[in-house]
Every structure is written in C-alpha cells, then in structure tokens.
C-alpha cells in the first residue's frame, strides 16, 4: 500500500512539475571545437569545425536569463541580473551539510566550514563566525589584487575559491574581456 501511495504521489509531483515547467538548467553549446576531454556532455563535437563560435551577444539576446551567484561579469552585469553581482554565501545563505557541518552554500570548498551542529549551536555560529564571508578583504590577492573592478566583484563567488585560497579559480570578467579583445583583433 505504501509503495502505491508513493508512486501515486510521485506521479502527481511529475504532473505538477510538467505544468510548471520551470527552466532549471540550460545547456549552451557555444562552440563545436572541443578539446574532447569531457565525458559528461555527450556532444559530438570535434576539434575542427565549420561552425564559428556563437558570439556572447547572440546568446544574451536570445534569452532573458538572470545569473545568480555564478560570478561577476563586468559590463554585462545589468544584462544578466536584475541586481548587480553579490555572492550571498554566509551573508544570507547558510547550510548544514550531510555530516552536520555548518557552512554557507553547499557547493563551496569544505575549508570554509564554520562549525558542526553536533558540537556547536547553529545560531551562535551564524551570529559570531562566518568572518571570511562577511569581510572579504582576504580575497584581494592574486589576479584580484590589482583588478579595477574588485570593489564590485569582491573576489567572485565563493565556489571559485579552493584549497589554500591564494587565487580565484575563475574570473568571468577576465574571460569576457579576453573574448572581446580577441573578437576585436579578429575584425581588425
């Protein structure tokens, strides 16, 4: 009886999700020139292609997409978000992980763990710890140290800091600036 009830409930859930059809993931094939090292995408891309890379402008114009905390994108901020970039990890977002660890977002490096519910009071930890999230001056190092956009970015999203935290893993603005420079040079 219980399994029949579970299956019935799940069918109702699937129907509701189908009617809602909220877009949670969007795969963007921006190039067919792949390094062929990926095993997850299932694409049939090859190193050489007759297709040119899709310009970022075309993608941004195609959909009204809003980024969340993926990272700062410089001049594109107002085009991809309703409000400017703000990584809210440890500011408005906290999490309790499977082992009881207290952190901000569950997708950030485990070195950011602030405590554990099995030995610490969550509210106390939230109110009195989370310093690396609330005072982000420590992120002003590596490529971020001399960045003219640091005040707006503050070191990108926390999921882009790992291990010893000496360098941000990804700078979306730098990637976009590089792509823009390459495109301009190709036109010249």
Radius of gyration: 21 Å
Unreliable residue runs = none
What is the count of DSSP helices, taking H or I runs of 4+ residues?
A: 7
Give helix % range. 25-40%
Report the portion of residues in β strands: under 5%
Output the helix-strand order: HHHEEEHHHH
Tally of DSSP β-strands = 3
From the helix content, strand content and strand pairing, which structural class follows?
mainly alpha
From the spread of the alpha carbons, the general shape counts as flat
Kindly, what is the distance between the CA atoms of the first and last residues, rounded to a whole number of angstroms? 71 Å
Mean of all residue-level pLDDT scores: 80
Largest sheet: 3 strands, antiparallel
How do the strands line up in the largest sheet? Answer: 1-2-3
What report would you give on this structure?
By secondary structure, this protein is mainly alpha-helical. It contains seven helices and three strands; from the N terminus they run H-H-H-E-E-E-H-H-H-H. The chain has helices at 2-20, 56-62, 77-80, 122-128, 131-134, 150-153, 172-187, and strands at residues 95-96, 101-103, 115-116. The chain has a three-stranded antiparallel β-sheet with strand order 1-2-3, with no helix packed on it. Strand 1 and strand 2 form a beta hairpin. 15% of the residues are buried.
Short description:
The chain is mainly alpha-helical and about 190 residues long. It is built from seven helices and three strands; from the N terminus they run αααβββαααα. Strand 1 and strand 2 (about 100-105) form a beta hairpin.
